[in-house]
């Protein structure tokens, strides 16, 4: 069995960066190259100031500090990375299609295909190619077809190795994974490739937690896991709407059902809705796959998870409007948080984007404070929706670097991300800064409602 001495990862994003950093840390004899055509991103990864890495993830800077320029390297020279590698991870973006067949549901595989064509063009010796991006079932087949038709006698083995990282805890998830999934062909060379990849993870993961499957099971396991988790959030959020009408408390219900060992307590936290790069994309992908095989009832079942999530975000915005005497026109709404969850600067599919879009429709002014998200990112998120002009967004949305400045003169405060720091603010001081009656809409149920009521705030929570 050949030894893996050189790994190349194409894509320096939320998956490629942390995953390769940990692989490099745990396999000091393997050279790991992360390559990306985005020069600015690679420059950020190479920045001497580790606070300026392009991704904020607790523990990541420390791992990069130990490995960078020893056996972990960041470069824009994709061709050289491919040529030198024994094993190539593809970790590029696979957004939901915004055009053509499957628009709004299917994954857009153009970046994956471009990668495959470049590998086929550059490679002069046998390679193991690992799909690391979240991909629809049958992508490995497309990769195989492109790579095997190069005609230059190079043999490629395709493996599926889906990531199961939660942003905000990605380094811990990598260091202590529940399982590592490796899918590949059940041929002698396929088995050898699976064993080689298993060996890299077994440098720190117990052998019985590294599962080998066929490619299809591996690809579909990733979509299924995220669909089940998203479904749990939508289920508890559906109950939160009922709780608000019946004086039940959604947190008490979550605690009660979470103690049932068959159900368990995880992913039962009611909120303004889930976000992130994976849940929505993967569920929609599942919907599209089911539809393409004529399984309409299956597609409708999973589609309802997304519909309920959209409903929850809309309901939160409507509640702000309803409790602002049915108009937010010209009023200032302070947003605490823009990231889709705490401990990350990722804003993909964040509830804050859609709540603010809904409030902009009603001509509100929004003042945003988030400890990790830049103003450029916030404006780009809103412009991407294409529902309001860049000029209107710049005029109506203000981004500040101080939570007290955000609160000053606001008609209401909306908590959109569960950052720990929000809990410990000087809320008595904030009360003096806001317009009265002072309203807080806690989209994450993290604040102490009783204490805030005593200060003088009216607090609206989810599911209470």
Detailed description of the structure:
- It is a single chain.
- With 464 residues, the protein is an alpha/beta fold.
- It is 44% helix and 13% strand.
- It contains 18 helices and 14 strands.
- The strands form 3 sheets. The protein has a 6-stranded parallel beta sheet, with helices on both faces.
- α17 (427-433) links the parallel β12 (412-415) and β13 (439-442).
- α1 crosses α3 (60-67), α5 packs parallel to α6 (139-148) and α12 crosses α13.
- It is globular and about 75 Å long.
- The model has no long low-confidence stretch (mean pLDDT 93).
Quick gist of this model?
This protein is of the alpha/beta class and 464 residues long. It has 18 helices and 14 strands. The strands form three sheets. The protein has a six-stranded parallel β-sheet with strand order 3-2-1-4-5-6, with helices on both faces.
Layout of strands and helices, then pairs:
Blueprint: E1 6-10, H1 16-26, E2 31-35, H2 39-45, H3 60-67, E3 72-75, H4 78-84, E4 87-90, H5 110-122, E5 127-131, H6 139-148, E6 156-160, H7 170-175, E7 180-183, H8 188-201, E8 210-213, H9 215-246, H10 250-258, H11 279-292, H12 296-322, E9 332-336, H13 351-361, E10 365-369, H14 375-385, H15 390-396, E11 397-399, H16 403-407, E12 412-415, H17 427-433, E13 439-442, H18 449-455, E14 458-461
Parallel strand pairs: 1-2, 1-4, 2-3, 4-5, 5-6, 7-8, 9-10, 9-12, 10-11, 12-13, 13-14
Helix pairs in contact: 1-3, 5-6, 9-11, 9-12, 11-12, 12-13, 13-14
């Amino acid at each position: 069995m050949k030894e893996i001495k050189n790994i190349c990862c194409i894509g320096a994003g939320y998956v490629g960066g942390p995953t390769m950093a940990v692989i490099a840390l745990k396999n000091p004899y393997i050279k790991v190259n992360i390559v990306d055509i985005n020069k600015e991103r690679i420059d950020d990864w190479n920045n001497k100031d580790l606070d300026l890495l392009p991704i904020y993830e607790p523990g990541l800077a420390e791992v990069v500090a130990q490995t960078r320029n020893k056996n972990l390297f960041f470069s824009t020279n994709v061709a050289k990375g491919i040529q030198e590698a024994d094993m190539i991870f593809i970790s590029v973006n696979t957004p939901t299609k915004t055009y053509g067949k499957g628009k709004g549901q299917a994954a857009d595989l153009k970046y994956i295909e471009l990668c495959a064509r470049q590998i086929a063009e550059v490679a002069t010796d046998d390679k193991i190619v690992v799909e690391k991006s979240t991909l629809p079932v049958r992508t490995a087949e497309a990769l195989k077809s492109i790579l095997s038709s190069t005609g230059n006698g190079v043999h490629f083995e395709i493996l599926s190795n889906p990531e199961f990282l939660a942003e905000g805890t990605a380094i811990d998830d990598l260091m202590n994974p529940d399982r590592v999934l490796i899918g590949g062909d059940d041929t002698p060379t396929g088995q050898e490739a699976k064993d080689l990849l298993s060996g890299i993870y077994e440098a720190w993961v117990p052998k019985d937690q590294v599962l080998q499957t066929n490619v299809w099971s591996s690809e579909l396991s990733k979509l299924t896991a995220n669909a089940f988790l998203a479904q749990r959030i939508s289920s508890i959020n559906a109950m939160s709407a009922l709780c608000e009408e019946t004086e039940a408390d959604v947190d008490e219900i979550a605690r009660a059902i979470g103690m049932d060992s068959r159900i368990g307590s995880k992913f039962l936290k009611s909120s303004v809705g889930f976000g992130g790069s994976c849940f929505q994309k993967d569920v929609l992908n599942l919907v599209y796959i089911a539809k393409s095989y004529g399984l309409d009832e299956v597609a409708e079942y999973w589609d309802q998870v997304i519909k309920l999530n959209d409903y929850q975000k809309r309901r939160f915005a409507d509640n702000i409007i309803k409790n602002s005497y049915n108009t937010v026109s010209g009023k200032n709404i302070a947003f605490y948080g823009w990231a889709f969850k705490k401990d990350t600067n990722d804003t993909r599919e964040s509830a804050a984007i859609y709540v603010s879009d809904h409030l902009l429709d009603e001509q509100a002014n929004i003042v945003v404070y988030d400890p990790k998200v830049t103003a450029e990112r916030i404006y780009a998120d809103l412009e991407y929706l294409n529902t309001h002009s860049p000029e209107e967004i710049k005029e109506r949305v203000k981004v500040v670097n101080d939570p007290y400045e955000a609160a000053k003169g606001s008609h209401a405060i909306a908590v959109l991300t569960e950052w720990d720091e929000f809990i410990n603010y000087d809320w008595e001081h904030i009360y003096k800064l806001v317009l009265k009656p002072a309203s807080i809409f806690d989209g994450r149920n993290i604040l102490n409602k009783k204490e805030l009521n005593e200060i003088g705030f009216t607090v609206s929570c989810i599911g209470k």
